């Protein structure tokens, strides 16, 4: 989903730009060895390949067809750093020549698709590419790359105040899941065909002992992107939940005292309040993942010592 | 094909085309920021910004109708969200989305239709884009049409063999499509290796050397001053009058 100009509010596109410039700079620096290895023509031609791949239709569902988006496929063939640079180049050309995505919104689009999408598409392959779940890992990579970037784009739109009833947001979440599954299937099929042609085209991945870390990272990414979408679509959801469960009274008394003054002063600003809520939500998710990871690590440690 | 039109437009010869690309990029960014930060964005704002960009289109002697149509490429996406907003009862937001995205697309199109891709990329690299990104963009743009034509030929070949006739066997068609993509990948890969060897043979050292590098002239500065004062002036007038 390419966000055009005119959709994002100034804080959102500015923040996304600020986030994606160092991100792309980091990946460009990491892929600098490609300059010496003569990989640059390959990266450019692979970008053109991803463009052209949109013309090949895959039959999916009843009478509908989909096409390759390509973030995960690039990540497992070129490696994540080069894939990020190639995706950034693709998004730039799309914004300039095809009016597909805006120029001010380029920061947001690069963040969603070239950074978060590529990293999400590579993580499963990085951790399970060499195990017997290899095919599942490639499928999950394709799924995650599309799902994470679509959720991020949607939550940026919601944060910017694009009006959308919660029902539509929920429906779009379901649609994202469907198109993400399509991308997963297409990525898996194309990667399989590529390996039959020439196994060296797909990046090797060593067996990584820290599969648990990968699991935590993938879960965190999934929760963070879907959670951000849910949180921005239903800002009152948590409160509603709390009231239903009956902890609202106590929580209010606990929360009201330190936050009361802030609420009156700067939390009046709508986008700021939403952003703070989102960041707090991310923090909670992060802490939960950390706790789960600790428990999982202890378990596997205990199993090993037995 | 429609992308060739932009390529032809960008090779036109007007004083607007001859402006330094860096100055045009800066003016575009100012214009986009002005659109994004003008509140409220009503008919008057849309008309003012559209007139501003259309005067640029006329100065560049670009076809007016063609430009207006090309910029409409942004509308399908926008119209979906505008319809949702309108159904949710917020027609103001629906208009804002349509007007802002269309006016912004016109501005981007003016830059792309009046500047050649090599000039744009050179400007991007002197404005601080990472070198590897600029190089990848150069190769991507150069081989975009080559690989797309290849894909087109493969698609027609598949259609000739009756790929569209068999509505039934979805599994096989899915596998066939993935095979087509893998072969396209393989051909692109081989092409890239050939390009690399050819460029190494011609002494490519990871840099593109230009015969002449553009210098900022007085008219570039004058254009930037004019564009900046016009966009910022509009933005403040529209905000104050609201």
Task: Summarize the structure in short.
The complex is a heterodimer of chains A (306) and B (242). Chain A is mainly α and 306 residues long.
Based on CA atoms alone, the radius of gyration of chain B comes out at: 22 Å
- Most strands sheet of chain B: none
Supply Rg of chain A.
21 Å
Query: What is the string of helix and strand elements of chain B?
Result: HHHHHHHHHHH
How far apart the termini of chain A lie comes to 49 Å
Summed over residues and divided by their number, the pLDDT of chain B gives a mean of: 87
CATH class of the domain at 10-209 in chain A, named Mainly Alpha
In spatial order, strands of the major sheet of chain A run 1-2
Main sheet summary of chain A:
2 strands, antiparallel
Uncertain segments of chain A: 251-268
Textual characterization of the structure:
- The complex is a heterodimer of chains A (306) and B (242).
- With 306 residues, chain A is mostly helical.
- Chain A contains 12 helices and 2 strands; from the N terminus they run αααββααααααααα.
- Chain A has a two-stranded antiparallel sheet.
- In chain A, strand 1 and strand 2 form a beta hairpin.
- Chain A is globular.
- Chain B has 242 residues and is an all-alpha fold.
- Chain B folds into 2 domains: 2-125 and 215-241, no CATH class; 130-201.
- In chain B, 78% of the residues lie in helices and 0% in strands.
- The two termini of chain B are 44 Å apart.
- The mean pLDDT of chain B is 87.
- Chains A and B meet through helix 1, helix 2, helix 3, strand 1 and helix 5 of A and helix 3, helix 6, helix 7, helix 9 and helix 10 of B.
């Amino acid at each position: 989903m390419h966000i055009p100009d005119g959709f994002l509010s100034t804080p959102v596109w500015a923040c996304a730009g600020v986030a994606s410039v160092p991100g792309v700079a980091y990946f460009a620096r990491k892929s600098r060895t490609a300059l010496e290895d003569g990989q640059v023509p390959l990266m450019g031609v692979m970008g053109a390949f991803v463009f052209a791949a949109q013309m090949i239709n895959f039959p999916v569902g009843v009478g509908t067809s989909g096409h390759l988006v390509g973030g995960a496929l690039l990540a497992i063939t070129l490696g994540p750093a080069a894939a990020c640079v190639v995706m950034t180049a693709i998004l730039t050309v799309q914004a300039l020549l095809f009016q597909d995505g805006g120029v001010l919104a380029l920061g947001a689009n690069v963040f969603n698709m070239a950074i978060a999408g590529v990293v999400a598409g590579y993580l499963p392959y990085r951790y399970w590419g060499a195990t017997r779940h290899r095919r599942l890992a490639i499928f999950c990579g394709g799924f995650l790359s599309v799902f994470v970037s679509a959720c991020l784009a949607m939550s940026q739109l919601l944060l910017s105040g694009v009006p959308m009833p919660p029902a539509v947001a929920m429906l779009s979440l379901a649609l994202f899941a469907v198109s993400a599954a399509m991308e997963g299937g297409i990525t898996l099929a194309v990667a399989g065909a590529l390996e039959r042609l020439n196994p060296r085209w797909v990046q090797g991945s060593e067996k990584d002992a820290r599969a648990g870390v990968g699991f935590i990272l993938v879960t965190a990414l999934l929760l963070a992107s879907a959670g951000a979408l849910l949180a921005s679509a239903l800002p009152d959801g948590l409160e509603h939940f709390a009231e239903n469960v009956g902890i609202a009274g106590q929580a209010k008394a606990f929360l009201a005292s330190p936050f009361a003054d802030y609420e009156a002063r700067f939390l009046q600003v709508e986008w700021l309040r939403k952003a703070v809520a989102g960041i707090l939500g991310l923090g909670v998710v992060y802490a939960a993942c950390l706790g789960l990871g600790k428990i999982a690590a202890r378990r596997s440690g205990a199993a090993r010592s037995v | 094909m429609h992308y060739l039109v932009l390529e032809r437009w960008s090779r036109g010869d007007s004083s607007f085309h001859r402006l330094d690309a860096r100055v045009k990029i800066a003016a575009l960014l100012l214009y986009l920021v002005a659109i994004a930060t003008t509140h409220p964005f009503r008919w008057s704002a849309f008309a003012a910004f559209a007139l501003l960009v259309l005067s640029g289109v006329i100065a560049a002697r670009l076809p007016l109708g063609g430009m207006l149509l090309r910029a409409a490429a942004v509308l399908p996406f926008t119209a979906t969200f505008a319809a949702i907003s309108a159904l949710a009862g917020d027609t103001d937001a629906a208009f804002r989305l349509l007007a802002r995205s269309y006016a912004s697309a016109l501005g981007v199109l003016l830059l792309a239709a009046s500047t050649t891709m090599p000039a744009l990329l050179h400007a991007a690299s002197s404005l601080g884009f990472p070198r590897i990104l600029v190089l990848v963009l150069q190769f991507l743009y150069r081989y975009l049409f080559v690989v797309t034509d290849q894909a087109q030929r493969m698609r027609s070949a598949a259609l000739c063999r009756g790929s569209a006739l068999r509505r039934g066997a979805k599994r096989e068609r899915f596998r066939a499509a993935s095979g087509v993509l893998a072969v396209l990948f393989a051909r692109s890969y081989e092409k890239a290796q050939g390009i690399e060897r050819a460029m190494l043979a011609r002494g490519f050292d990871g840099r593109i050397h230009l015969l002449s590098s553009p210098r900022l002239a007085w008219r570039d500065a004058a254009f930037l001053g004019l564009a900046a004062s016009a966009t910022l002036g509009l933005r403040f007038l529209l905000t104050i009058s609201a």
